[in-house]
């Protein structure tokens, strides 16, 4: 039921998939330099300072303890960034899938131009069932990602606040100093990384809401005036059911939309 039925629908959903790939590549381009900069940090710092400041029950400046600890931190940071990155892209892919299903349903409703009443009624019932399955799938996805989104939003907001506060304390003159610490560049790229993360949730969540809002309008674009009263009643039922857009929330505390990102 969720598969595109002809080439036109494949081209219709291709735009959403291509945009998801662009966000994927952009996220990769932002996360890659973060990892590289943290890997290069110990090599560019002669004082044997670890990439991340933690307390250890031994002197980390002595070899080979410094090298082992540094390697452990780099590997941990690498796996953390990869995990965050893939969780975000999985959630975004689920949102894209819901949005593309709304596109396919709208296209099916617009193309209800069959003159045969029985065929028109059959296709209409399939569209109604398709809409029901979309709502069920969206609800299950929201139950799955709800707590994840809340945790990601809270963690990203706190991290962004600390990073921006730290950057605000940096003296502007050090930007022209040859001894500028690589941490500054790592923090700047990290800010871009987390801004893209929050933007991704809000953008694709807003796309789901916008596309689901088009469903009741797509019904009126079909050739419904010549058909029976039963078909018109079924269409009215679908219109009433689709009046409420599909909105993804983070643990029912707030909905994902571009309004959150703008604010």
Automatic annotation (TrEMBL):
Q: Spell out the molecular function terms from Gene Ontology.
A: odorant binding; olfactory receptor activity
Q: Which UniProt keywords apply?
A: Cell membrane, Membrane, Olfaction, Receptor, Sensory transduction, Transducer, Transmembrane, Transmembrane helix
Give TM segment ranges.
Answer: 22-44, 144-164, 184-204
The cellular location(s) given in this protein's UniProt record come to:
Cell membrane
A GO BP term here is:
signal transduction
Write down the Pfam families for this protein, in alphabetical order.
Answer: 7tm_6
The protein's predominant localisation is membrane
Q: How does it sit in the membrane?
A: Multi-pass membrane protein
Q: Which GO terms describe its cellular component?
A: plasma membrane
Q: Is Transmembrane set as a keyword in this record?
A: yes
Its name, as the record gives it, is 7tm 6 domain containing protein
The species this protein was found in: Asbolus verrucosus (Desert ironclad beetle)
């Amino acid at each position: 039921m969720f598969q595109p039925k002809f080439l036109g629908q494949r081209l219709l959903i291709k735009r959403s998939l291509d945009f998801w790939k662009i966000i994927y590549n952009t996220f990769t381009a932002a996360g890659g330099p973060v990892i590289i900069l943290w890997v290069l940090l110990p090599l560019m710092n002669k004082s044997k300072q670890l990439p991340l400041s933690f307390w250890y029950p031994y002197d980390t400046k002595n070899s080979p303890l410094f090298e082992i600890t540094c390697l452990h931190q780099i590997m941990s940071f690498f796996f953390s960034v990869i995990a965050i990155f893939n969780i975000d892209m999985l959630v975004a892919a689920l949102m894209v899938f819901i949005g593309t299903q709304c596109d396919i349903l709208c296209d099916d409703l617009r193309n209800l131009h069959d003159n045969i009443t029985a065929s028109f009624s059959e296709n209409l019932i399939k569209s109604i069932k398709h809409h029901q399955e979309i709502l069920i799938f969206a609800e299950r996805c929201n139950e799955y990602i709800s707590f994840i989104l809340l945790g990601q939003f809270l963690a990203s907001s706190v991290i962004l606040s600390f990073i921006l506060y730290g950057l605000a304390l940096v003296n502007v003159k050090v930007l022209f100093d040859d001894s500028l610490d690589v941490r500054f560049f790592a923090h700047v790229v990290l800010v871009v990384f987390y801004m893209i993360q929050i933007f991704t949730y809000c953008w694709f969540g807003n796309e789901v809401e916008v596309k689901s809002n088009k469903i009741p309008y797509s019904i009126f674009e079909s050739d419904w005036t010549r058909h029976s009263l039963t078909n018109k009643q079924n269409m009215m039922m679908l219109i009433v059911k689709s009046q409420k857009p599909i909105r993804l929330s983070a643990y029912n505390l707030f909905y994902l939309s571009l309004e959150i990102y703008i604010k």
